[in-house]
Design brief:
Blueprint lengths: L2 H13 L3 H4 L20 E6 L2 E6 L6 E7 L4 H17 L3 E7 L6 H10 L6 E5 L3 H6 L7 H6 L17 E2 L2 E2 L2 E8 L2 E5 H7 L10 H11 L12 E4 L4 H10 L5 E2 L4 E2 L4 H15 L7 H6 L3 H6 L3 E6 L4 H9 L4 E5 L10 E10 L6 H13 L1 H11 L2 E2 L11 H5 L5 H5 L5 E2 L7 H15 L6 H17 L2
Parallel strand pairs: 3-4, 3-5, 10-13, 15-17
Antiparallel strand pairs: 1-2, 5-15, 6-7, 8-15, 8-16, 9-13, 9-14, 11-12
Helix pairs in contact: 3-15, 9-10, 10-19, 18-19
């Protein structure tokens, strides 16, 4: 996976949410057109040497298809360009103009700008969290009519557990490309575990097993109270803390996303458990220590932490580190102590502009993209992401993913209870920032998680009630 893609996407997820563009999109989209029938193409008459010959008129519109993409590295961009060429060859009269996001520009600001200017792309990148507000504001085409008529792809061909993140009011508004549960892995430094006599973790580990190992792996050789080697390192942002809360049986919202659920002991208890690793056990570094050491990933690669709770986009950097001598392994992120494990759903997907004059061509593009084995295999080479279409599962089930413990993901993406995206739609950006500010105080010991939850829930509910 190219580092440009991973860093850009992570920055968007951490610092920007669905609210960035949704408010400006209201009333932008014209009524959706009905997809053309594909079973009985219309006929046009061509006269050749006084002989009448009938030729099928394509069910798709001809001309240029404008596709806007975000954050692709050079190798991924090349694979998308190659797919575009294959698509054009299979669709006479059609071409594909693939436009990557300009360097240094916010993708959703770019998308909002072209929509407002009346030059919206026919097809564009979407992520989890953006689908619902964009669909609500008329900026995404409902794909259900296309799925109902299409002979090549049906809704049942997609992983049920992943559909909520790309749906609105029960209908599909974005086409699944790939799925990434997060934080997916507990990475471990084999030599450091060997030296401490700690067994390598497995995908069946619980939080307590991880904590016990992290304490044993923490080393303060100077005796100054500041470990030279931490047992565990992790980031504190909404992807891991939703995984902690959900896995522990808690939730962020209740009553159809109208109430804050963080005052439930199962919710704030999960946050307190992980904060205590930093504040009480001191087997995980503070955010300031991580910043000084240039981040959690860098600490793990630099032998300053034995265990790292991370994501699939870390693989590129870790594989590079392996060539330089870092001997590491991985398994699925640990389960809560009651055995439950619920992941945040990172989602790559395509959206179609309802005002496009090439809706049928756009549909065939996104359909063919997600069902194209060469494209998804290439995509997996860079992203190590789980394909949205069940029939392409084999592109993910490789010796590498088996070694990572990721083959169990097949059971996760098929179960809506194990893969989630938080509610509140376009308000999630603002609300998650409110919550994050409180959790940050917990992770430095200035508040208990219970008090932080009590303090933040009233303002969260005020925001949820805001129209």
């Amino acid at each position: 996976m190219d580092a440009h893609r991973s860093v850009s996407r992570r920055r968007f997820l951490r610092l920007g949410g669905a609210a960035m563009a949704a408010g400006a999109l209201a009333a932008c989209a014209p009524p959706a057109a009905t997809p053309a029938a594909t079973s009985a193409p219309a006929k046009e008459t061509v006269v050749v040497k006084e002989t009448v010959v009938t030729q099928p008129t394509p069910a798709y519109e001809q001309g240029e298809l404008y596709v806007l993409v975000c954050c692709s590295g050079p190798e991924e961009q090349e694979a998308k360009n190659e797919f575009g060429q294959r698509f054009a060859e299979s669709h006479p009269g059609a071409t594909v103009r693939l436009e990557p996001m300009p360097a240094g520009q916010n993708y959703f600001e770019k998308l909002q700008t072209v929509i407002a200017a009346g030059t919206a792309p026919d097809v564009y990148d979407m992520w989890e969290g953006y689908v619902q507000p964009y669909a609500k504001n008329g900026a995404l085409l409902n794909l259900e009519p296309f799925l109902e008529k299409d002979a090549k792809l049906k809704k049942s061909d997609l992983w049920e557990g992943a559909l909520e993140a790309v749906s609105w009011e029960g209908d599909l508004y974005a086409m699944l490309i790939c799925i990434m549960p997060g934080p997916v892995s507990l990475y471990y430094n084999k030599p450091l575990l060997d030296a401490a006599g700690v067994s390598y973790p497995t995908s069946d580990w619980t939080w307590n097993q991880m904590r016990d190992a992290a304490i044993r792996l923490t080393a303060d050789t100077n005796g100054d109270g500041e470990p030279e080697q931490y047992g565990l390192v992790f980031d504190n942002w909404f992807v891991p803390w939703t995984y902690w809360i959900w896995s522990n049986g808690g939730d962020v919202f209740a009553d159809n996303d109208t109430k804050c659920a963080l005052t439930d002991p199962k919710a704030y208890g999960a946050i307190q458990y992980w904060a205590d690793l930093v504040v009480k056990d001191k087997c995980a570094p503070t955010a300031s220590v991580q910043s000084t050491m240039q981040g959690s990933m860098n600490m793990f690669k630099g032998n300053m932490a034995a265990l790292y709770l991370g994501n699939c986009w870390d693989l590129a950097g870790l594989n590079d580190a392996r060539t330089q001598g870092l001997d590491w392994g991985a398994c699925l992120a640990p389960k809560a102590n009651d055995g439950n494990r619920v992941f945040y759903q990172h989602t790559w997907c395509w959206g179609i502009w309802p005002g496009s004059k090439k809706q049928n061509l756009a549909w065939e593009y996104v359909r063919d993209f997600v069902t194209d084995e060469k494209m998804i295999t290439a995509f997996n080479t860079f992203q190590k992401a789980f394909p949205g279409v069940k029939a392409l599962l084999h592109t993910f089930m490789t010796p590498e993913t088996e070694a990572l413990g990721w083959t169990a993901i097949v059971d996760i993406v098929g179960d809506p209870k194990k893969l989630r995206y938080p509610g509140s739609g376009a308000k999630w950006d603002k609300i998650s920032s409110m919550i994050q500010a409180e959790w940050d105080l917990v992770f430095v010991g200035d508040k208990t998680a219970e008090q932080a939850a009590k303090d933040v829930c009233p303002v969260v509910e005020e925001e949820l009630a805001r129209t």
